[in-house]
Amino acid sequence: MRLVVIGVNHKTAPVALRERLALVGDDVNVALKQIEAFTDGSVIVSTCNRTEIYALVPHISTSQPANSQLSDSQLSDVQDIKAAGQSSSNNTFSSSMNISSAAISAHITKIKTWLADFKQLPLVDIDPYLYVHRDTHALTHWLRVAAGLDSMILGEPQILGQIKNSVHLAQDQKVLSNQLGWIIDQVFAAAKRVRNETQVGAQAVSLSFAAAKLVTQIFDDLPSRTLLVVAAGEMNRLVATHIAGLGVGRVIICNRNPERAEALAAELRGPNRRVDVRPLQELPQVLAEADIVSSCSGSMDLLIDKTMTIQALKRRRYQPMLMIDLAVPRDIDSTISRIDDVYLYSVDDLQHVIAGNIEQRRQAAVDAELLVSQLVVEIDRRFQVRQVGKDIQQYRACTQGQVDKLLYESIAKLQQDDVSPEDIITELSRRLTQTLTHAPSKLMRKAAREGDSDLLDFVVSGLQDAHRGH
């Protein structure tokens, strides 16, 4: 399949490393263009909990120097097939599935090295935290991620939308090959089936739900409380919607883009709720007004530091504040957690908050994992059929070229004087028979020589069935 995935997530790397490996904003577009130079298409998924590169290793034709990476037996098979269909130096057959494990490993190393260089980090420092999957294992991982089975909050639906956004970015940069596009379509369709046919997403457990639960654990009189939303992205929209639904009396939205902030404000306004929009530059001033802060900006710099928080606390007369930092890299200085009267939670901390419904999702995940395994097998079979169809077309074209050559030679002989048409036709028939039976004959001899009875029975029975069909 040539599909590989290289990445880190909340299970393999701490938040400090994940934020250093995060690819956000223009970095993603630049990265996609650079990776295009040594892949057959790629998608970069970078969220609060993971940074992953999904890529297709470039196909290496059997007519290219990559043959040096094949074993002697693999090279012999390739040469047998080529010999059966070769009619000239420009008419050869090579399988679209053929690529060595060594070639895939080399490209995985190339992607790792590129990532380290791009983020200006030593490869030796990040390699222990990177995971690598290839072929159907990569497909299984991608489907598990898309279905929410690999998320910090089991079964959360946001990741599928985030993957779709990542795919759109890759499409905009024109770095998706037809084959990778086909795989992506299969992943989306399969993830939808997992969520529709199991209960893994039925219970309300997500980052936004966890944030709302924190609010209820710390504050009682919610109508008198103020929520400050720093950045009006999708995650913060979900958090704000959940918390506002608890009855918070006031919401302040700080965002660089006023249009997006106003759109979120329109969603949150209600008869008993005041919603104000402020520019991000006013964050130090409005921080003191907030009892609850939710931040998820995607910025590479801290938005709320320790000094700003201490000043806000003084103005608040040290009333408690709940700060929820969903961003990677972090928006809020982690040292703020040492300040009295401030409850600071990062995305890693939220993992310890979730309870209750998560156990039901774990039980449903057993069924979901089984369905994922079945769907991967189905997708892989469809992929093999799709790929072998191209190989069959190429093989038939090569064989037709050889037949045309023999026919042309025979017609030329028929135009000569003193020739026997019967002899020429007999010779043409003999040569055609040799051409059409060369590859299967060689394959049967090879299977017999190596004691591969299963392959030998498969080829012989297949040829017998083909002859009976005619």
Automatic annotation (TrEMBL):
Substrate binds at residues 47-50, 151, 156-158, 162. NCBIfam families: hemA. Belongs to the glutamyl-tRNA reductase family. The record marks 141 as: Important for activity. It is an enzyme of class 1 (oxidoreductase). Residues 6-198 form the Glutamyl-tRNA reductase N-terminal domain. Its EC number is 1.2.1.70. The gene is hemA. Pfam families: GlutR_dimer, GlutR_N, Shikimate_DH. Catalyzes the NADPH-dependent reduction of glutamyl-tRNA(Glu) to glutamate 1-semialdehyde (GSA). Keywords: NADP, Oxidoreductase, Porphyrin biosynthesis. Pathway: Porphyrin-containing compound metabolism; protoporphyrin-IX biosynthesis; 5-aminolevulinate from L-glutamyl-tRNA(Glu): step 1/2. Homodimer. It catalyses: (S)-4-amino-5-oxopentanoate + tRNA(Glu) + NADP(+) = L-glutamyl-tRNA(Glu) + NADPH + H(+). Residues 368-457 form the Tetrapyrrole biosynthesis glutamyl-tRNA reductase dimerisation domain. The active site is at residue 48. Possesses an unusual extended V-shaped dimeric structure with each monomer consisting of three distinct domains arranged along a curved 'spinal' alpha-helix. The N-terminal catalytic domain specifically recognizes the glutamate moiety of the substrate. The second domain is the NADPH-binding domain, and the third C-terminal domain is responsible for dimerization. The lineage of its organism: Bacteria, Pseudomonadati, Pseudomonadota, Gammaproteobacteria, Moraxellales. Residues 214-353 form the Quinate/shikimate 5-dehydrogenase/glutamyl-tRNA reductase domain. It comes from Psychrobacter proteolyticus. This is Glutamyl-tRNA reductase. GO terms for molecular function: glutamyl-tRNA reductase activity. During catalysis, the active site Cys acts as a nucleophile attacking the alpha-carbonyl group of tRNA-bound glutamate with the formation of a thioester intermediate between enzyme and glutamate, and the concomitant release of tRNA(Glu). The thioester intermediate is finally reduced by direct hydride transfer from NADPH, to form the product GSA. NADP(+) binds at residues 231-236.
